[in-house]
Amino acid sequence: MCSSDLFYAQLNSPMFKSLPYFLKERGFQSPSDVNDCNWQYWKGTSNNLFADLSANPAMANDFHAAMQCHSKYNLTPWPEVYPTSTIVSATKPDRALVVDIGGSKGHDLEKFRLCHPDIPDGSLILQDLPDVVKDVQVDRAISAQGYDFFTPQPVKGARIYFMHNVLHDWPDDSATIILKNIASAMEKGYSKLLIHESLISRVNPLARVTVSDITMMACLAAKERTEIEWGEVIRNSGLRIVKIWRPPQSVESVIEAELE
Q1: What SS3 state is found at 144?
Q2: Percent of the chain with pLDDT over 70
Q3: Rounded Cα gap, residues 239 and 254, in angstroms
Q4: Residues tagged active-site
Q5: H or E element: which one contains 192?
Q6: pLDDT for the residue numbered 166
Q7: Tell me, what DSSP letter sits at residue 45?
Q8: What is the Cα–Cα distance from 130 to 148, expressed in whole angstroms?
Q9: Between the CA of residue 39 and those of 16, 22, 47, 79, 174, what are the distances in Å?
Q10: CB under 8 Å, gap of 24 or more: what pairs does 57-65 form?
Q11: Beta-bridge partner residues of 226
């Protein structure tokens, strides 16, 4: 069994088994606190999922392997959803080109690099917690940086701030804090935020998205969001949606946002 299979077997199955009992105990109310949800109910701990990953390197390795496999085999590459040539053509010199926040081992930046092989060394910045990126092996176009996205964003005035399947891990209040930290680093009229996530359609939503919605609730008191819900979180962060890039063949969309 590969690392990604181990992650799903060890976590998803018991999480779904405990969820009905947790919800019954809480009066079938949707949880909204990542530190007081089904994860703590099942584990008998005060830690949330990400705290447990930090304390357990083997489980963390399985988690990041699962994320890489999911990105490689299940998802349309984001440069095929969003016109990334517009990023490169309008970049100011000596500025970061793309900052991938919560980017795991860099698989999304590698997709971008392969589409644009002539970009300068170090112009792509991979950010994740220090334990995640400390030994990461990346191309010289990518610079790895330890960073907690609940703290101020250290890279100012980048062309693109990018997040892939990060915000669905967090309830609305936490997602707003994360986005406000990004907004404070953006340059008005130049910087853009790209959020690569699933959207729950109001009519005939995809089963893969609704199952993921339940998974986020079970593990993290979080959720997948509708277009309206995304709009509220983004507006509350001082940003506005420019466009949602949603090709019919892709499960995930790219929400393009900028400073209001």
Answers
A1: strand
A2: 94
A3: 15
A4: 168
A5: strand 192-200
A6: 95
A7: S
A8: 8
A9: 10, 9, 8, 34, 17
A10: 57/131, 59/7, 59/10, 60/131, 60/132, 61/3, 62/3, 62/4, 62/6, 62/7, 62/10, 63/7, 64/104, 64/105, 64/132, 65/2, 65/3, 65/4, 65/7
A11: 200
At 10, the amino acid letter reads Q
Question: Which tens digit of pLDDT belongs to each residue from 108-167?
Answer: 999 999 999 999 999 999 999 998 999 899 999 999 999 999 999 999 999 999 999 999
Phi-psi region of 161 (alpha: psi -120 to 50; beta: other; left: phi over 0): beta
Give the pair of three-digit tokens for residue 19. Answer: 């969820």
**Tokens representing residue 4 in the block:** 């990604």
Gap between the Cα atoms of 235 and 257, Å rounded: 10
CA–CA distance, 125 with 194 (Å, rounded to integer): 14
DSSP string, 242-259: EEEE--TT-SEEEEEEEE
Strand partners of residue 256: 194, 243
Give the strand pairing for 124-128 and 98-101: parallel
Spell out a b/e string for 223-239, using b for 16 or more CB atoms within 10 Å of the CB, else e: bbbeeeebbebbeebbb
| Beta-bridge partners for 244 | 255
SS3 state at 60: helix
- List pLDDT tens digits, range 154-185: 999 999 999 999 999 999 999 999 999 999 99
Q: Which amino acid is at 142?
A: I
Cα distance between residue 172 and residue 55, in whole Å:
26
Helix, strand, coil percentages, rounded to 5, for the chain: 45, 15, 40
